[in-house]
Amino acid sequence: MGCFNKRAVIAQPAQTTSSTENLQHRSEEEELYEKLLEDDPLNVEALKMRLKWRLLLALCYETMGQLSKAKRLFKEILEERPLMLRALHGLALVMHKNLEGPAVFDMLNKALELARREKRVPEERNIGILIAQMHVVKGDLEEGLKRFQDLVNENPRDFRPYLCQGIIYSLLDKKTEAEEQFETYRALAPEEFPQRGFLDDVVLTAKTASQEQFQKEFNAEFSYRK
User: Fold this and answer.
1) Strands (E) located in 76-140
2) Which PANTHER family match (predicted)?
3) To which H or E segment does residue 106 belong?
4) Tell me, what DSSP letter sits at residue 13?
């Protein structure tokens, strides 16, 4: 998982029909997998594909601003896979856009406690990073910095908190501190990491854009969409 990951821009009005058709197509695919599961409840591949389509459908609804539908789907997915990071992230963003405030962190902290009880160490760390991200999305940059530093202290070899701290310092217009964090990120992130190119682009944007421009882009990504 990256940091404050960007998704596709909301479709323009001229593309609304295409988006609707995609949703209808995905609903038909989901019905197909549900039928396969009715015939064979132990069909693991059908179960995986059904979950994948439901996640894609929820992400589409969230992108289109249909937050109640997105929230319902994310919650249904989490009933089956309570530690699925993409669903937790999606639900957290939807709740943030719904102005649900502390409920976002109540939901994430419950998932964090579940990961700890079940000794799911990778999931526990990923959710911890997500919680820190959501503090930044909420606008509490200092709390975000503190939580990312705690994550660095727990595991100094994980490059993600350094990247996120660099982005926060860029939002605060602290270029020197940001560059220090980005240098550590570059030193630790493996070249073969699948999203390395994308994350390097994020770093470049943070370094070259003005503080005002970078803040505007960040706010546009995570603010409530009408």
Assistant:
1) none
2) TRANSMEMBRANE PROTEIN
3) helix 102-117
4) G
